[in-house]
Specification:
Radius of gyration: 20 Å
Largest sheet: 8 strands, mixed
Number of strands: 10
Number of helices: 10
Strand content: 15-25%
Structural class: alpha/beta
Order of helices and strands: HHHEHHEEHEEHEHEEHEHE
Distance between the termini: 36 Å
CATH architecture of the largest domain: 3-Layer(aba) Sandwich
Strand order of the largest sheet: 1-4-3-2-5-6-10-9
Shape: globular
CATH class of the largest domain: Alpha Beta
Bound molecules: S-adenosylmethionine
């Protein structure tokens, strides 16, 4: 099974693009023909592979692209069962997302680094065509479990190596992922490539001032032991320059601070009071073709 998968992946990376639920299998069969794998054995392998994919309900493609991402994926796998996706910082980015995403019925929406599926569940069910990717198998499993009312194409892959055709999405959202990425410039160029002209992206990241206050890396204690998740500090000016270079216009920039109400909910956050918590960006791809 593994050599077949590798062959498929190397020969036709575009086969990873899913037009709708289930079409992945068809593309793989097509690919096998193109690769000259016509034997009965190959068909058996394809069938088995399709069943595995169906049972997982997300496709496993390119995952970590480097050692840093491997460590991140392992850390989030350990964190997934106990990850708190309702902490008070969600009071800051969720209203921004809902105001700035501006989706329309039938809109193709991509969630980059979906985690537990928090953003997806803020969208009206049944109105949009949703795709969600994440590096961590554990986070994807939890997202899928917690988002059963939504029809989502799940994909385990990295935001730094998007397996989609140009102009595949009308809207992109990404929450708290950019601070795990070493090069925001690369991430924004990936976003620009798969976004349709005039498409919008809403990106939230942990604010660099907050990272300096609390440390940019995350240490997780879970049943599976201690895990370390690397983080990277990106200054706001760096993010703005990266967006500009990727031909993404910064329509809105917000840097909301930790409020007294948040500290009341989380007394341990007292030392964070008044510190900018998040960087929130609403980006628009320039309207030219390509
Ligand atoms: C802090 S969580 C945020 C999850 C979710 N977006 C939210 O806002 O609730 C960060 C997520 O990004 C994912 N992630 C980190 N680096 C990634 C990468 N290079 N590609 C895809 N996902 C990544 C992690 O696995 C994790 O699920």
């Amino acid at each position: 099974m593994f050599p077949f998968f590798q062959l498929w992946h190397e020969k036709t990376p575009d086969a990873l693009v899913l037009s709708d639920r289930g079409s992945l299998e068809d593309k793989r069969c097509q690919c096998a023909k193109e690769c000259g794998i016509q034997s009965r054995f190959a068909r058996v392998v394809q069938t088995l592979f399709s069943r595995v994919i169906r049972s997982l309900n997300w496709s496993r493609s390119t995952v970590a692209t480097n050692a840093n991402e491997n460590i991140t994926a392992t850390g989030y796998d350990a964190w997934a069962p106990i990850y708190d996706d309702r902490d008070p910082s969600t009071w800051l980015d969720e209203p921004f997302l809902l105001q700035q995403l501006q989706p329309f019925p039938g809109c193709r929406i991509l969630d980059l680094g979906c985690g537990t599926g928090r953003y997806l569940r803020r969208l009206t069910s049944g109105l949009y065509r949703l795709t969600a990717i994440d590096l961590s198998r554990g986070m994807l499993a939890r997202a899928q479990r917690d988002s059963q009312s939504l029809d989502v194409r799940w994909l385990q892959t990295s935001v730094t190596s998007l397996p989609f055709q140009p102009n595949s999405f009308d809207r992109i959202m990404s929450g708290l992922v950019i601070d795990h990425v070493t090069a925001p410039k690369h991430l924004f160029s990936q976003i620009a490539a798969v976004l349709a002209p005039n498409g919008r992206a809403v990106v939230a990241g942990v604010h660099p001032d907050m990272q300096r206050l609390t440390g940019s890396n995350i240490e997780v204690e879970s049943d599976k032991g201690a895990a370390h998740i690397p983080g990277h500090i990106h200054e706001v000016t760096e993010l703005l320059a990266a967006a500009d270079e990727a031909q993404l216009k910064v329509e809105v920039l917000e840097q909301p601070r930790v409020t007294p109400a948040m500290v009341e909910r989380r007394p341990a956050w007292k030392r964070k009071l008044g510190c900018p918590a998040l960087v929130l960006l609403a980006l628009v791809k320039h309207g030219r073709k390509g």
